[in-house]
Amino acid sequence: MGIYVHFNHCNKNKIVSNFSLKLVCASSIMRRSEGRRPQPIRVWDGRLNRAMNKRLERMNDLNQLRRLTSGLLSLALVGSTCTAWLPTVASASRQEYSVQTEQATGSIALTLSFDLPQRVDEVKSRNIQLTLTGNNKNITVSLNNGSATGADGLSVSVKALNTQGVEMTTENQIGAYEAVISGLPLGTYHMNVTGEGYANCSTEVTLQDYSQHVLMSTADGTFSLGDVTGDGVVDADDRTALSDALGQTDALDTYDLNGDGVVDVTDLSYVNKMMDLAAEPRILSTTAIVAPTVESDTLEVEGNVADLFTDSESVVTLKPTEEAEALSIPITLDKPTEMSEISISSPSAQGAIQAGTALVEYEEDDQVKTMEIPFDAAAPEGVYAISRNAGQSVVTINLGSKVAVKKVTITVTKVEGQEGDKPEFATVTQIEFLKDIVSEETKADTQVKGLAATAGDGEVTLVWESVKNVTGYTVKYGTNKSALNQSAASNTNRTVISGLENNTTYYFQVIATNGADLD
User: What letter does residue 292 receive in the DSSP assignment?
Assistant: First the structure.
């Protein structure tokens, strides 16, 4: 005997699915559930009196009815279970395609710029160290060789950069040290930078919504060069001590500040410039510490999607599903996050992202707005490619200003080694949402502005705006603007050029300089 039951499976007012169930002989359901072959219910014969026989027949009918009712009740219970179960499955399926990441750590970085020129071997001899304490951490990093103590479970990197901001190879003059400590728990830390011949610099750094980048310099009063007496400041005592050591060769490790092998007026000028100058280091909020959601109903992910938003350097492969029209990466931030750029890092190999568009949803004036920004590794305006780390290709998307972004959908149209508008896959190591851009903040502005000239009898007086972190100026001039063949030096933002011919047109150019050429 077969019973077919067909019904609509509903959840509230919404039909979730339709299906059919086949029910075998209801009187056998309970016995089959016990793992035994169903047995018929026997009816006694005429040896018993007819009344008893009829009574037993009624009992048999009642038992069959009871078993049939139990079978139907089991079916009803199964159907009821299905009613509660199906929406749960649908919900779980949607969650599979919405990956919520978690990020409870950040990084603290230091850029120490040597804006008073020094040879790299001289800097290394001065044992510059960075210490970071707080949140049960006590970390010491040698900027000389990159060694670190107390950094278990953390990532520490140190680079020596040349004057163009590129990692050093064979150059003699150092431009900056760049140190990064990653994987730090959120909280407040105390940073202290020390070195022989420098005034120590300390500052508080708080990791909360963004990773932090501290900027110090040997020429702006933060990490001042010239503390030859070792008392922690650059003052008149240092000037006196260095003046007494001029021309001597027995204490070069202390008084030869620029490392050129002699104690001379250049070293004394460093002390004069930094004497009694003190300033607080600048602290930039860089990469947003966020826990975004990656909607990937049209995206297949190989690897841990959470690695996209950390500096783990793990490679994540992203593929469009068969039904997807494009390789798109929709990223919803856990809260509106202020940023000015989006950075996408890929290994410099097949699959590296080269071009596409970014659809940005952001808040402005209590309204949600959108903007679509094309990006291309070869585009010179707004979006550009850089190679920040060896083996990495980085595409940076400039948002034009700092905006509070809610969602970004990155659509990739071109990757390394593939043809067509729908790439088969893309490889990514990190996606960063950047607020302050360190490269722009540390870029030296040596352009002379506000140049004014006053003509006199056979001479011209020139005045211009002072430029920070330079040691002097060179004035080039001549009667042909395409060939300024004469020059004069000045230590201040004012000079007088004499020996000129009256009733003659002269052209002048002022260039900021930064000490002797140590290369």
Answer: -
What DSSP assignment string belongs to 293-360? EEE-TTEEEES-GGGGGSS----EEEEE-TT-SSEEEEEEEEEEEEEEEEEEEEESSTTBEEEEEEEE
Categorize the per-residue pLDDT at 359 as very low, low, confident or very high, splitting at 50, 70 and 90: very high
pLDDT attached to residue 131:
98
The residue whose two tokens read 């240092």 is 238
Strands 327-347 and 384-386: unpaired
CB-facing half-sphere around the CA of 42: CA atoms within 13 A: 2
Phi, psi of 183 (to 5 degrees): 85, 20
420-456 per-position pLDDT tens digit:
878 999 999 999 999 998 876 665 556 788 888 888 9
CB of 467 within 8 A of CB of 322? no
State the greatest distance between any 2 C-alpha atoms of the chain, in Å, as a whole number: 152
DSSP letter assigned to residue 27: G
- Three-class SS of 418-447: CCCCCCCCEEECEEEEECCCHHHHHCCCCC
Question: Tens of pLDDT along 243-266?
Answer: 999 998 888 899 999 999 999 999
Asked which of 79-93, 108-122, 233-247, 370-384 is least confident by mean pLDDT, the reply is: 79-93
Q: How far apart (Å, rounded) are the C-alpha atoms in residues 186 and 192?
A: 19
Q: How far apart are CA 335 and CA 48, in angstroms?
A: 84
φ and ψ at residue 27, rounded to 5 degrees: -70, -10
Contact (CB, 8 A) for 79 and 8:
no
Question: pLDDT tens for residues 55-84?
Answer: 545 555 555 545 544 444 443 434 433 333
User: Angle CA(56)–CA(59)–CA(62) in degrees, nearest 5?
Assistant: 155
Nearest-angstrom CA–CA distance, 307 and 431: 9
Rounded Cα distance between 100 and 334, Å, is: 9
DSSP 175-192: -EEEEEEEEEESEEEEEE
Number of residues that this document lists for the chain: 519
SS3 of residue 236 by DSSP:
helix
Nearest C-alpha neighbor of 116 from the set 211, 210, 200, 216: 216
The confidence score (pLDDT) of residue 10 equals: 41
